[in-house]
Amino acid sequence: MKQLFLVLFIYIISLSGFSQQHELGIMGGASYYLGDLNPYAHFIQSRPAGGIMYRYNMNTRMAFRVSAVFGSLTAADSIIGYNKDRNLSFRSPLMEFGGIYELSYYKFKIGSDKDFFTPYIFAGLSFFKFNPKGYYEGEWYNLQSLGTEGQGTTAYPNRKPYSLAGFAIPFGLGIKIGIRSSTVLGFEWGLRKTFTDYIDDVSTTYADPYVLMSQNTHVAAALADQSKDREVNKVGFQRGNSATKDWYSFAGVSLTFKVKDKSDSCRKSGSRQKSPKSKYLRILRNESNIL
Q1: For domain 25-259, is the CATH number 2.40.160.20?
Q2: CA distance 126 to 195
Q3: pLDDT at residue 22 above 70?
Q4: DSSP for 79-124, written as a single string
Q5: In angstroms, how far is CA 231 from the centroid of its own chain?
Q6: Residue ranges of the domains in the chain?
Q7: What confidence tens digit (pLDDT) does each residue in 114-125 have?
């Protein structure tokens, strides 16, 4: 039975005719946010982002990569216009570390004159960190520690401080183009589904401003309600939508370079190696002799 599995494995490799290829490179582009302040508008208030990546090409159709992306997210009711009267805003640094599986539409191989272009789709899992900040009287304040929705007060015991890190599910599409023998140019756009509603520090209802001033700070009360009609009692009224989670996105360009391996050296030196197909036929003949 073990011999049959071995034969099948080598046969699959022989069909692909592919030696694994490794890539290292950089990426650059823009990141943006979708959530309570910006429910629908893609690419609005995008910010510069970039990172590094490693890609392992398993065969001509499948690849796995790991990457680190650094950027920022921002949004303002006054600019996006979804809820101008609320007048909230934030900005946040963004760090993402992820693993992503790529599936190509066409065959793709670095250095090939034939299989040098393909669209692809991708999905994976990432870990990200954020820290929303609000602007008040010339300074930026960390909103999570202020508890703008009553977190940390005795009046709202069920509202706990939210985490500044979490997991996300990245997915999207892209295009890869092979350039000469060792370079790949890529264009990609992807969304990140998160499991937090606090990238923007906005989720539920307005807290009592007197509670915020007495148990947190006057800055917390001021940043919790930045509308022009702050004198109106909004306690218990909707500040955000807790039924939906926040998203963020990255779109950009990547440039990667093939990492030379032992197989490249052997091919350049002219040494002859037996192909996977010949190994498969040899093992198959041995199996036939045993039977």
Answers
A1: yes
A2: 12
A3: yes
A4: HH-SSTTT--EEEEEEEEEEEEEEEESS---TT-SSS-EEEEEEEE
A5: 41
A6: 1-20+261-286, 25-259
A7: 999 999 999 999
